[in-house]
Amino acid sequence: MHVFELDRRALIGWAMSGMAVMAGCEYRAPESALVDGPTAAPTIEEPRPALVRAGQEIFRFDTFGDEQFWTDTLRMHEVVEAAVDPLTALGVGLKVDAEALPSGLLETADLTSPATTVALLKLNAVVGLKGRVDANGRLASLGITCALCHSTVDNSVMPGIGRRKDGWPNRDLNVGAIIALSPALPADKKAVYQSWGPGLYDPRFSIDGKNTPLVLPPAYGLANVVNETYTGDAPISYWNAYVAVTQMHGQGNFSDPRLGISITQSPDLVTPKLPALRAYQHSLKTPTPPPGSFDSRRAARGREVFARSCARCHIDGSGTDNNNGVLHQPAETGVDGAYAARTVNKAYRTTPLRGLWQHPPYFHDGSAPTLAAVVEHYNRVLGLKLNPAQQRNLVEYVKSL
Question: Does 199 share its domain with 171?
Answer without folding.
Answer: yes
